[in-house]
C-alpha cells in the first residue's frame, strides 16, 4: 500500500467540526473522548463490533470505493460509539470502520453517546441504522421488528424515533409476512419494496409466488406489477357468484379495485336494496387495523 496522507482522518473531521474549534490531529495520535457527547479519535482496536447491526451484507466494491475516498479525503463523519468498560461498542458507522481498517489506519474519529443498558444500546443502534438510505427493505423491516419485540416500542413510538409515518412502519413490517423466497429477492434487490407492497395485497402465498415469478421473468416495473395484481382482483371479482347473490355492476367492481389499491387490503362492497349497502374492509391484525385507520384519517 502506498504512503497514506498524514492527516487523512483529521482533515475530514476538521471539515465537520471546524465551527466548534476542533483541531485536527494526525491519525497516529489519540484524543480520548473525555465526556459523553464529546468527539475525538479512538484506537480502532478499542472499538467492538455492533451486535445489533441491521446490515447483514456489505458490498465489497462499495467498501473499496469508500476506503479510497477516506485515504484521499479523510473521514467526513465520525462513527458513533458508547462506552463499555475500557473499550467502546460501535453504535453506527460499521462501513466507515471497516474501510478505515482496510486503509491501514489505527485510529478513527468517533462521537460518544450515553447508553445505560443493552436495551438503550439496541435502540440507539437500530434507530441510527434504520435512518440510513442504503439498507434494503428487509433489513429495515427486521430492524423495525426488533424495536417492537426487543425494545417494546409501539409502531407509533418507532415512527416518531425514525422519522417515518406510522403507515410506512406498518408497511415495512408487513413485508416479513411474504414467503422467504420473496424476502430473499427483496434483500438481493431483484425486486423493489414497491413490487413487494403490491405482492402483499394478494390473499395467499401461492398467488404471491406466481406474480413474483412473473416479475422476474418479464422484468415488470412496479406500475406493471400493480396493474397485474389489480387485474387478478378483477378476475376474481368477476367470477360467477352463488345464485343467491345479486348481480354486481361493473361500477362496484371498479370501486372495490380502487379501494383495494388505496388501502392495500381486501375490500368488498355489498349492495343492498334501495341503493343502500355496506363496505367490508378486511384487516389481519391490530397493527393492520391501525394502519388502515391512519390512511382513512389522512385521506
> Judging from the principal axes of the Cα atoms, what is the shape?
elongated
What is the second-level CATH architecture of the largest domain? Alpha-Beta Complex
Largest sheet: 5 strands, mixed
Class by helix and strand content? alpha/beta
**How many domain units?**
3
Strand order of the largest sheet: 1-5-3-4-2
List low-confidence stretches. 1-35, 242-246
In brief, what are we looking at here?
The chain is of the alpha/beta class.
Can you describe this structure?
The protein has 299 residues and is of the alpha/beta class. It has three domains: 8-115, Conserved hypothetical protein from pyrococcus furiosus pfu- 392566-001, ParB domain; 193-239, no CATH class; 244-299, no CATH class. It has 13 helices and seven strands. The chain has helices at 8-17, 60-73, 94-102, 118-130, 137-149, 155-162, 166-174, 180-187, 193-200, 205-218, 222-237, 250-263, 286-298; strands at 39-43, 47-48, 79-84, 87-92, 107-113, 267-271, 277-281. The strands form two sheets. A five-stranded mixed sheet has the order 1-5-3-4-2. It has a two-stranded antiparallel sheet with strand order 6-7. Strand 6 and strand 7 (277-281) form a beta hairpin. Helix 5 (137-149) crosses helix 7 (166-174), helix 9 runs parallel beside helix 11 (222-237) and helix 11 (222-237) crosses helix 12 (250-263). The N and C termini lie far apart (58 Å).
Amino acid at each position: 500500500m502506498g504512503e497514506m496522507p498524514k492527516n487523512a482522518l483529521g482533515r475530514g473531521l476538521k471539515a465537520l467540526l471546524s465551527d466548534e474549534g476542533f483541531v485536527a490531529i494526525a491519525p497516529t495520535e489519540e484524543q480520548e473522548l473525555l465526556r459523553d457527547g464529546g468527539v475525538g479519535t479512538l484506537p480502532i482496536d478499542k472499538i467492538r463490533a455492533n451486535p445489533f447491526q441491521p446490515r447483514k451484507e456489505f458490498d465489497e466494491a462499495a467498501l473499496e470505493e469508500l476506503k479510497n475516498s477516506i485515504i484521499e479525503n479523510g473521514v467526513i463523519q465520525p462513527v458513533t460509539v458508547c462506552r463499555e468498560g475500557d473499550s467502546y461498542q460501535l453504535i453506527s458507522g460499521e462501513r466507515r470502520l471497516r474501510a478505515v481498517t482496510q486503509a491501514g489506519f489505527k485510529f478513527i474519529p468517533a462521537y460518544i453517546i450515553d447508553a445505560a443498558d443493552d436495551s438503550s444500546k439496541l435502540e440507539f443502534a437500530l434507530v441510527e441504522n434504520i435512518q440510513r438510505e442504503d439498507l434494503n427493505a428487509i433489513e429495515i423491516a427486521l430492524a423495525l421488528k426488533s424495536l417492537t419485540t426487543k425494545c417494546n416500542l409501539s409502531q407509533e413510538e418507532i415512527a416518531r424515533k425514525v422519522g417515518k409515518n406510522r403507515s410506512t412502519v406498518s408497511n415495512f413490517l408487513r413485508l416479513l409476512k411474504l414467503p422467504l423466497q420473496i424476502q430473499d429477492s427483496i434483500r438481493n434487490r431483484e425486486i423493489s419494496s414497491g413490487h413487494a407492497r403490491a405482492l402483499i395485497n394478494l390473499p395467499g402465498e401461492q398467488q404471491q409466488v406466481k406474480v413474483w415469478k412473473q416479475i422476474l421473468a418479464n422484468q415488470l416495473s412496479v406500475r406493471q406489477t400493480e396493474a397485474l395484481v389489480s387485474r387478478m382482483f378483477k378476475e376474481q371479482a368477476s367470477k360467477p357468484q352463488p345464485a343467491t347473490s345479486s348481480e354486481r355492476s361493473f361500477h362496484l367492481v371498479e370501486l372495490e379495485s380502487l379501494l383495494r389499491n388505496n388501502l392495500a387490503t381486501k375490500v368488498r362492497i355489498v349492495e343492498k336494496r334501495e341503493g343502500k349497502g355496506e363496505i367490508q374492509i378486511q384487516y389481519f391484525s391490530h397493527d393492520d387495523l391501525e394502519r388502515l385507520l391512519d390512511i382513512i384519517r389522512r385521506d
